[in-house]
Amino acid sequence: MVEVRKREKENIGSLLRRFQERIKKSGDLIAAKESQHFQPRSTKRARREKALQSQKMRAEKDKLRKLGRL
């Protein structure tokens, strides 16, 4: 929970700016947005296929890099 107290002679704009900075640094807002929608875990098969695909793309990029085309 982020808490910001108003300083002497501080206007609302600077108070809000400090509050927003603290929210960003704490990561609470990101966590709240992520937990808003349920996302089921991917299946073992889907994770395996994704890993194989990324491995294949990495090999293709390395091949192109060695040929000087990337």
Gist of the model:
By secondary structure, this protein is mainly alpha-helical. It has helices at residues 12-26, 28-34, 44-67.
For the largest beta-sheet, the strand count, sense and barrel status come to: none
Q: Helical region count?
A: 3
Q: Which structural class should the secondary elements be placed in?
A: mainly alpha
Average pLDDT, to the nearest integer?
93
Percentage of residues in DSSP E strands: under 5%
Number of strands: 0
Describe the structure.
By secondary structure, the protein is an all-alpha fold. Helix content is 66%, strand content 0%. The protein contains 3 helices and no strands. The longest helix is centred in the C-terminal third of the chain and has 24 residues, at 44-67. The mean pLDDT is 93.
